[in-house]
């Protein structure tokens, strides 16, 4: 029975997390155990576990009255997140370039990203998934579990903020990712760190530009 509840809890968490990240659950939305138990066809127990996990990952917070709601990410938050990401991910890129681990995943991702540029335009969801996978792969190559966990958590919060709303970043972002992958494959730590820093600075600039010039 415990295994079933844990499995349902994991599944429920993934479903609620996806709803938050793709914008179906907006910032401030109440996370009602009964509502989601009914809509997802599960008992309240896995919903309660899923909500607790969302809170622990920063995707949800508890209001003053104790009601869990979807967390909101402000412009100041995202600027700070991108600053911290730059510090962490530049170091991760540098270490990844020096790593002796196999880099087959990077080669595979480079092929997919190149296909985004030469083939049909990918959906925002597909592009975001590859973006998440690449940054996570680079962090893992740095061979630090803590660094990987921190980067993955901050990347999710970045996604909570933009939710694929920056289509102008798709093509330049792909070129930046390919250059970054090449630097890591060439075992050039200085270039890898510099390219990661520029990539995140460009993302920061794009977010600010989108806020003040949304159309």
TrEMBL record:
InterPro entries linked to this entry: GntR_C, TF_FadR/GntR_C, Tscrpt_reg_HTH_GntR, WH-like_DNA-bd_sf, WH_DNA-bd_sf
Pfam families in alphabetical order: FCD, GntR
A single MF term (Gene Ontology): DNA-binding transcription factor activity
Keyword terms of this UniProt record: DNA-binding, Transcription, Transcription regulation
Domain HTH gntR-type span(s) in chain numbering: 6-73
Entry-linked PANTHER family: GNTR FAMILY REGULATORY PROTEIN (PTHR43537:SF45), TRANSCRIPTIONAL REGULATOR, GNTR FAMILY (PTHR43537)
Name of the protein described by the UniProt record: GntR family transcriptional regulator
Organism whose genome encodes this protein: Pseudorhodobacter turbinis
Lineage: Bacteria, Pseudomonadati, Pseudomonadota, Alphaproteobacteria, Rhodobacterales
